[in-house]
Amino acid sequence: MTIRWAAFAAVGLWLSVFGTAACHRKPAAPVTAAPQTPADSAPIAPVSGTSMTAVRFLEDRVKSDPDDLVALNKLANYYLQLYRETYNAKYLELALRSAHASLNVLAPEQNLAGLDALAQAEYATHDFNSARNHATELIEYQPGKVAGYLVLGDALLELGDYSKATAAYEKVEELDHGTVASETRLARLAFLRGDLATAQRRYAAALAQAKAALVPTAESIAWCYWQSGETAFQAGDYAAAEQDDRDALAVSPNYVRAMASLGRVRAALADRAGAIEQYEHAVRIMPDPLFVAALGDLYKLADRAKDATRQYALVEQIGRLNELNGVLYNRQLALFYADHDLKLDEAYAKAAKEYAVRRDVYGADAVAWTAFKAGKLTEAQTAMNEALRLGTKDARMLYHAGMIARAAGNRSGAHDYLARVLALNPQFDPLLAPFAVKAAAE
Questions:
Q1: CA dist list (Å): 370 to 244, 325, 367, 383, 418
Q2: For residue 52, what are the contacts with CB-CB under 8 A and spacing of at least 6?
Q3: What are the distances in angstroms from CA 405 to CA 29, 178, 181, 413?
Q4: Residue 38 confidence (pLDDT) above 50
């Protein structure tokens, strides 16, 4: 191994498969109170600029030798890392291209790194069926390695095949017990099954492992804090959620997901100005339709109608920017339309088309809510039953169930669902929560 390749191998150890850095962007403005430093004294590996430097080096290698298998495989993984750092979908397309080029040079059975890169890129682009198939193929070649089971479980989870996803994750735990990868997957399963306490415990274990890594990374630690905060928010523990988000931002100041989550927490705590501040910084870094729509809602509640209209228009622009964005943000756009009573037939068509392939509980929830808003009550009831099949404790989902039951004349069912919303997470959404309160009172 040359000195240059050894250097890039060392860089690779620093790059986490979780979270995002966006370190090259302008620093985020300070949050509304001084964040506490996590109780972790281990040095965190720097990542600023490393991915782009590696990519340029590898692109030069491939340009001079298009059949450089090692460079192509590394390039695919660095493109995925750059997507996590910049949120630019073009890097997903480049990752797919590099992985396919690698497998054109050497067949999968002799090129497992290329097969793994392809499965990961397909998962990132929401081609979950292909990711599942290639992960299965990877497992056939190396049944004793964890990589294939990770992608397989993740793809199956998105496809709604929860029994097989569980089996894949159990295999991950068997091969890779107690690691960030295994604990976070099992935490997600626990959350989907309504076991918030187990989910929180597993995220705490993952965070401890991320901090104890040989070379801790800011991305991995911040991601674990953020996931813990998301679970706390779903349980209505806004103080814990806020602390987790602040801890994530103390580790990685531009960690945009924690930034947006902190905005949501501030909104739940009736700090609308603080919430707007956080969302404004988040969308400058990452104009995710969820963040943009949330900011628009806060502007609307603050009587800033023109600002709200601009944000709502941006949601549509992002979702329709290109074909890949249409795939990545299809569900968000459908729910945005339904929440804001816009293009309701189109919203239902989008949700139903996606659910025909991606049959997870959140896909069923999207079909139920868009069908309800489009006046298709029977379809909404059927889909809502599917959405609730795991017992997921998500206030937004329960709110949808309550409103659908109310429209169907099921007063006791509506009361039960809406009472659960208000007991679990009464400020789940600044725009929709007041409707839940009013409907429960009625």
A1: 32, 20, 5, 10, 19
A2: 24, 82
A3: 43, 42, 38, 6
A4: no
Q: Cα separation of 133 and 266, whole Å?
A: 42
Q: Which residues fall within 8 angstroms of residue 315, CB to CB, at 6 or more apart?
A: 289, 292, 293, 296, 332, 333, 336
Contacting residues for 286 by C-beta, under 8 A, at least 6 apart: 20, 22, 87, 256
CB 293 within 8 A of CB 316: no
Q: How far apart are CA 39 and CA 42, in angstroms?
A: 9
- Bridge partners for 217 per DSSP: 45
* C-alpha–C-alpha distance, residues 186 and 71, integer Å: 33
Q: Which long-range contacts (CB under 8 A, 24 or more apart) does 143-151 make?
A: 144/175, 145/175, 146/171, 146/172, 146/175, 146/176, 146/181, 147/116, 148/116, 148/119, 149/175, 150/181, 150/185, 151/116, 151/119, 151/120, 151/123
167: Cβ–Cβ under 8 A, 6 or more apart, which residues? none
Q: What is the pTM of this model?
A: 0.87
Residue 49: pLDDT band with limits 50, 70, 90: low
Q: How far apart are CA 435 and CA 232, in angstroms?
A: 23
User: Where does the pLDDT of residue 106 fall: very low under 50, low under 70, confident under 90, or very high at 90 and above?
Assistant: very high
In angstroms, the first-to-last Cα distance of the chain is: 72
CA nearest 344: which of 304, 375, 306?
375
The pLDDT-based confidence of 319 (bands split at 50, 70, 90) is confident
Q: Which residues pair with 45 in a beta bridge?
A: 217
pLDDT band at 138; cut points 50, 70, 90: very high
Task: Give the list of residues 6+ apart from residue 301 with CB closer than 8 angstroms, or none.
Answer: 272, 430, 431
Residues 6+ apart with CB under 8 A from 189: 157, 162, 165, 166, 169
* 3-class secondary structure per residue, 257-272: HHHHHHHHHHHHCCCH
- And the tokens for 38? 């996590």
Q: What are phi and psi of 262, to 5 degrees?
A: -65, -35
Question: Which string of DSSP letters, residue by residue, matches 211-229?
Answer: HTSSS-BHHHHHHHHHHHH
State the angle between helix axes of 147-159 and 112-124 in degrees (0 to 180), rounded to the nearest 10. 20
H helix runs in 87-146, sequence order: 90-105, 112-124, 128-141
